[in-house]
């Protein structure tokens, strides 16, 4: 949980539990799994138990909601950075049902439910045709295969905002069939970490251009540990794509999040 999240596209993060199972190429170098192991939590895998939390943890969003109401502004809550709300396990149902109630109790917070399991959404939510206005529903689309698999499942549900997280972006994406009327926000970013895979700038530019053509907000979160440079310093690790783009391995902070000379911070109103 984080009251002031370091994730650029949200204000807070909230986890109803910790733990998950790797599902697709985006999960290969999962930062959440690495963090859990670093603090001694064995919560990853099909047979691993999940970590749950007490009342103090669950009361924090209620405080955030009061603060948002007092400030007359809406604030976003990413749920969940250390889990997947739609992991289909019966031992998670108690915490999941508590989450649904918490969402309805916090109308000044927009809850961003991001999943790699959109096929399970309909089975696990209590809402069918009428979703709360403060739920934003998203799925991960790291390449075209997973966009084609997941986006059709996502758009079955009438959430007020439906969004895509294309991070880590691992291939070119054509989102044209879903933009404007079915997808309301696109987040993209490169991968960070010791074994991170580089993201071709051409893939990012293509997403940005598709979003601009359809007036869909576009958010570029980060380059990660690989960033494009015109000049390559001596002994640097370099990756060159067939398009001629060269990326250099560097610290995430040094790589930054600028694309073609500007920061892209688009978000739905």
Question: Structural class of the secondary elements?
Answer: alpha/beta
Strand order, biggest sheet?
1-2-3-4-5-6-7
Task: State the separation between the terminal residues, measured CA to CA.
Answer: 25 Å
| Main sheet attributes: strand count, strand direction, barrel closure | 7 strands, parallel
Q: What is the name of the CATH topology? A: TIM Barrel
Number of domains: 1
**What's the total number of strands?**
12
- Give the overall average pLDDT: 94
CATH class: Alpha Beta
Task: List the quaternary state of the chains.
Answer: single chain
Summarize the structure in words.
The chain has 269 residues and is α/β, with parallel strands linked by helices. The chain has one domain: Aldolase class I (TIM Barrel, Alpha-Beta Barrel). It has seven helices and twelve strands. The strands form three sheets. A seven-stranded parallel β-sheet has the order 1-2-3-4-5-6-7. It starts with 11 loop residues before the first strand and ends in a 6-residue tail after the last strand.
Summarize it.
The protein has 269 residues and is of the alpha/beta class. 26% of the residues lie in helices and 17% in strands. The protein has a seven-stranded parallel beta sheet with strand order 1-2-3-4-5-6-7. Strands 8-10-9 form a three-stranded antiparallel beta sheet, with no helix packed on it. The chain has a two-stranded antiparallel sheet with strand order 11-12.
């Amino acid at each position: 949980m984080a009251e002031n999240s370091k994730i650029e596209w949200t204000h807070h993060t909230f986890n109803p539990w910790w733990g998950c199972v790797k599902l697709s190429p985006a999960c290969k170098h999962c930062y959440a799994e690495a963090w859990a192991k670093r603090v001694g939590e064995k919560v990853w895998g099909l047979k691993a138990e999940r970590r749950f939390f007490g009342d103090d943890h669950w009361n924090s969003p209620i405080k955030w909601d009061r603060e948002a109401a007092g400030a007359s502004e809406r604030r976003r809550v990413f749920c969940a950075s250390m889990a997947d709300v739609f992991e289909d396990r019966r031992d998670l149902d108690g915490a999941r049902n508590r989450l649904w109630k918490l969402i309805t109790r916090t109308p000044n917070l927009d809850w961003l439910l991001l999943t790699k399991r959109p096929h399970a959404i309909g089975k696990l939510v209590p809402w069918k045709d009428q979703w709360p206005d403060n739920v934003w529903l998203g799925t991960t689309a790291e390449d075209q295969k997973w966009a084609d698999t997941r986006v059709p499942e996502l758009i079955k549900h009438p959430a007020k905002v439906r969004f895509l997280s294309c991070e880590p972006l691992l291939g070119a994406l054509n989102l044209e069939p879903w933009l404007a009327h079915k997808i309301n926000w696109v987040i993209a970013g490169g991968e960070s970490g010791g074994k991170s895979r580089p993201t071709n700038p051409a893939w990012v530019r293509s997403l940005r251009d598709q979003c601009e053509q359809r007036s869909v907000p576009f958010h570029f979160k980060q380059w990660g540990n690989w960033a494009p440079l015109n000049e390559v310093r001596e002994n640097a690790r370099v990756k060159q794509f067939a398009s001629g783009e060269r990326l250099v391995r560097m610290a995430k902070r040094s790589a930054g999040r600028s694309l073609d000379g500007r920061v892209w911070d688009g978000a739905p109103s």
